[in-house]
Design a protein that fits this description.
The chain has a four-stranded antiparallel β-sheet. Helix content is 24%, strand content 27%. The protein is of the alpha+beta class. The relative contact order is 0.24.
Length: 95
Amino acid sequence: MAENSSCCTPEGSCHSGGTDVQVGEVTTTYRVTGMTCGHCEGAVRSEIGELAGVSSVQAVAATGLVTVTSKAPLDEDAVRAAVDEAGYELVGRAA
C-alpha cells in the first residue's frame, strides 16, 4: 500500500505546517514585538529552541506570534529571557 499522504493522523486529528505534535506535549503561543523579517523569526526560533524540552518553534513576523511545542509547560521567564537574548520583546501569551 502507498504511504498515506493525508495531513491527518490515523486517529483522525489534523495538523498543518508539517509539525507533528506528540501525545503529552504542550503547545503555547506567545506574542513577540519587534520581529520584521525572516531573520528575526530565525533568531527567535533559535533562542527559544535551546530551552530544555522544546521540540518545535514557529515564529511569524507578520503576526508577532510564536508557537512553541514542548514536553512540559515552559517557565514564561525562561521564554522571556530567550526572546530578550534574540533582541526582541515577549509581550506575553497570545489570547
